[in-house]
């Protein structure tokens, strides 16, 4: 008789034996309990697995060796990502052991940058559903969808992605929702999640430039939430910059920073740095912002851009009087005029930090700090 457990899936950490509520084929189809060829003889008896597995019994290390050979035979990183996703759906113990053994090699395959390709090709490589799928066309079913997804009190990750052009696309085939309908959907999801998962820590991932900070500001004081592009990137960059300033002996109250790229990440970094300047130098936030110059694809952000600026960009736009009409606004021109101690890159434009720009910084700063 199979043992009993209160878990529909395994908890995050375990010590000792775990009761198993499955036997036979359902056991082999459950990724949390399936051990594949590693089931020993006594467990094959107990869980009625004879005839459902090859007779040879392998150790976990032997399974890892075979799985790694299979992984290595895949022709490209996307195929390797798909292989790993398939393994995770079949045998999580083997998946994590393989990953642990070859983490340095595999990290870029299961995460950035290959995961972005996997998301774009989601409809093409789809094999089995994972997670909870929420549709803009069924806003009144958000809470029902969360109930169907799980009856546990915790949730790990929420993902939404669309690729309308793919004929195999599995999502809602309609233009991106904006404005009131967008905000209502986000709010319904937030409220349903708070009721269903009251201890959840919600991570806003890859929200668009015009929505990221606005939504974070709206809900940030109400419950535990986090935007990695704005806050995660910002705090890590600030920590690295603070370390570098100790080396080049520049006081944070005097540092000049140029951010190339004024999207969610760029403005998030600028916001974190300006907060640190204000706090550590006992300056106002308005004065701290004056030590930061943000440059986007159109050049240095200026107040005269008006409605072209996002709410997150507005505090960092410079007064037009600081920059004459004859002045260039591109990155090189800004570096020449500002003479920054720190240059931070968050733009998707490759090769932006040219040798000329680096040499220009080095003319005026003994040890320039550059984050490409």
Automatic annotation (TrEMBL):
Sorted UniProt keywords: Metal-binding, NAD, Oxidoreductase
GO biological process: one example: malate metabolic process
Alphabetized InterPro entries for the sequence: Aminoacid_DH-like_N_sf, Malic_enzyme_CS, Malic_N_dom, Malic_N_dom_sf, Malic_NAD-bd, Malic_OxRdtase, NAD(P)-bd_dom_sf
SMART domains, alphabetized: malic, Malic_M
SUPFAM superfamilies in the cross-refs: Aminoacid dehydrogenase-like, N-terminal domain, NAD(P)-binding Rossmann-fold domains
A Pfam family that the UniProt record links to this protein: Malic_M
Entry note: cofactor: Divalent metal cations. Prefers magnesium or manganese.
Positions of a divalent metal cation binding: 205-206, 229
Presence of the UniProt keyword Metal-binding in the record: yes
An example Gene Ontology molecular-function term: malate dehydrogenase (decarboxylating) (NAD+) activity
Domain Malic enzyme NAD-binding, chain residue ranges per copy: 230-372
Names of required cofactors: Mg(2+); Mn(2+)
One term under GO cellular component: cytosol
GTP-binding keyword on record: no
Ranges where the Malic enzyme N-terminal domain occurs: 88-220
PANTHER family documented for this protein: MALIC ENZYME-RELATED (PTHR23406), NAD-DEPENDENT MALIC ENZYME, MITOCHONDRIAL (PTHR23406:SF34)
Family of the protein in this entry: Belongs to the malic enzymes family.
Entry protein name: Malic enzyme
Organism, scientific name: Parascedosporium putredinis
């Amino acid at each position: 008789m199979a043992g009993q457990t209160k878990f529909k899936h395994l908890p995050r950490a375990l010590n000792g034996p775990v009761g198993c509520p499955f036997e036979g084929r359902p056991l082999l189809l459950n990724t949390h309990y399936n051990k594949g060829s590693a089931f020993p003889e006594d467990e094959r008896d107990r869980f009625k697995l004879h005839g459902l597995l090859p007779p040879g019994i392998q150790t976990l290390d032997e399974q890892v060796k075979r799985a790694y050979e299979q992984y290595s035979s895949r022709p490209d990183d996307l195929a390797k990502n798909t292989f790993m996703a398939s393994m995770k759906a079949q045998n999580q113990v083997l998946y994590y052991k393989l990953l642990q053994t070859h983490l340095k090699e595999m990290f870029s395959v299961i995460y950035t940058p290959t995961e972005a390709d996997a998301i774009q090709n989601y409809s093409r490589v789809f094999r089995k559903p994972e997670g909870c799928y929420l549709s803009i066309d069924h806003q009144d079913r958000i809470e029902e969808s969360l109930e169907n997804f799980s009856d546990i009190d915790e949730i790990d990750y929420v993902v939404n992605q669309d690729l309308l052009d793919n004929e195999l696309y599995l999502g809602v085939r309609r233009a991106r929702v904006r404005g009131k309908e967008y905000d209502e959907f986000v709010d319904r999801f937030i409220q349903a999640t708070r009721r269903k998962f009251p201890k959840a820590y919600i991570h806003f991932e890859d929200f668009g430039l015009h929505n990221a900070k606005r939504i974070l500001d709206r809900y940030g004081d109400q419950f535990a939430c986090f935007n990695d592009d704005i806050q995660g990137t910002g705090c890590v960059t600030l920590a690295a910059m603070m370390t570098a300033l100790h080396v080049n002996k520049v006081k944070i109250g005097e540092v000049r920073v140029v951010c190339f790229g004024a999207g969610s990440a760029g403005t998030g970094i600028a916001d974190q740095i300006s907060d640190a300047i204000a706090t550590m130098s006992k300056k106002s936030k308005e004065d701290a912002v004056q030590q930061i110059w943000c440059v986007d694809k159109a050049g240095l952000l200026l107040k005269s851009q008006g409605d072209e600026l996002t709410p997150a960009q507005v505090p960092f736009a410079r007064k037009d009087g600081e920059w004459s009409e004859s002045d260039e606004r591109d990155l090189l021109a800004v570096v020449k005029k500002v003479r920054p101690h720190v240059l931070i890159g968050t733009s998707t434009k490759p090769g932006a930090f040219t040798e000329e720009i680096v040499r220009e910084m080095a003319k005026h700063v003994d040890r320039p700090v550059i984050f490409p």
